[in-house]
Design a protein that fits this description.
Blueprint: H1 3-21, H2 27-44, H3 46-54, E1 61-62, E2 65-66, E3 68-71, E4 76-79, H4 101-111, E5 114-122, E6 129-139, E7 142-149
Antiparallel strand pairs: 1-2, 3-4, 3-7, 5-6, 6-7
Length: about 150
């Protein structure tokens, strides 16, 4: 086998293995992750739940799926992907298209209690801005959510 053939074969194997390891989550899995965090909060309390969400190796981070949490004023109180967002007031945060997605999230929580929303965000497995749909649910005065990146 030529060296270029071996290199190509290694590259193909790497791509296959990488796609298996970083398989994108589904909408059902995102919603189930939120429901799991809600169940955890009922047993352990919200404070402990937020700690677990912030643990990148914890039970609420799975590949490109993770839980995020906001209060009803737009403060990020936990985030499974970006620690730098924790504690930030993101009420006026816009996605690259100018969508005020945190305000929309709060409105869904206030009016419906739960639901889906579309926006753009950085995918932790590709580090690229991608289209995302997230399921959010209000638990007391906290909004828990998880989303999937649309391919």
């Amino acid at each position: 086998m030529k060296k270029t053939d071996k290199t190509a074969m290694i590259a193909i194997i790497f791509i296959i293995l990488t796609s298996i390891v970083y398989a994108a989550g589904t909408q059902d899995e995102a919603k189930a992750l939120v429901k799991s965090a809600i169940a955890y909060s009922k047993v352990n309390g919200m404070s402990k739940t937020l700690e677990e969400i912030n643990n990148p190796k914890g039970q609420f981070t799975k590949g490109d799926l993770y839980i995020f949490a906001y209060d009803m004023h737009g403060y990020c109180v936990a985030h499974g992907f970006s620690k730098k967002l924790i504690g930030a007031h993101l009420f006026n945060m816009k996605d690259p298209d100018g969508k005020l997605y945190v305000q929309e999230r709060i409105e869904i929580a206030k009016t419906k209690g739960s639901g889906w929303q579309d926006y753009k965000f950085t995918n932790p497995t590709t580090n690229k801005i991608e289209n995302k749909t997230a399921y959010i649910e209000k638990v007391g005065d906290i909004i828990l959510g998880s989303g999937v990146y649309k391919q």
